[in-house]
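Just wondering, can you check both lines?
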Amino acid sequence: MKTRQKTHLIIFIALAIALNYVGSNIALFLKLPIYLDMVGSLLIAILFGPWLGALTAILSALLSWLTTDIFAIYYAPVAIVTVLLAGFMFRKKAELKRLAILTIPLSLIGTLISASITVVLFKGITSSGSSLLAQIFHAMGMNLTTSLIIVQILTDYLDRLVSLTLVFVLIKQLKDQLNFQLLKEK
C-alpha cells in the first residue's frame, strides 16, 4: 500500500472512531434504547474489510471507556463480532432492500454476547437506555436474564438496522461524491 493510501486510510479510521464516539455519546446521554456506537466501525468493515473494522471497534471502545462510558470496553467483543460478521456479509454488496432480514443474524449473535456480559459482569445494570427498560421489566416480575434478553433482542436489532442503514446511505453519498469529484477533475 502506498504512503498516500495509508494516510487516507488512517484518516478514514480516525473519522470512523469519531463517528462512533459521537453516536455512542448521543445515545448514552439521551438514554436512547439503541447504542449508535458501531456506525463508523461498520463503515470501515464494509469499505475496507472486517479486520480494519474490528480494529476501529476496539479503538472506539477504548476511547469511550477512557472518557465517557466505563462500560464501553466490556462490550467491545459485541462490536468486534458484529463488525467482523457485517464486514464479511456486506463486503461484496451493500444493499438496502434485504437489510431488514440480514440484520437478524447480526443482532442475535450480538444479543447473546451482550446479554451474557450484562448478566454476568453487571447483574443487569449498565449505562445504556436498554438497561433501564430491562430493569422496568424485572421490576414487573420478569426474571432478570429473561428481561435482559428480550430487551437486548429488540434494541440490538433496532440499533444494527439503524446503524447499517446510516452506513449504506453514507456509502452511497461517498460514491456519488467521489464520482462527482472524478468528473470535475477531467
Summary: Residues 34 and 159 are 5 Å apart (CA to CA). The chain has seven helices and no strands.
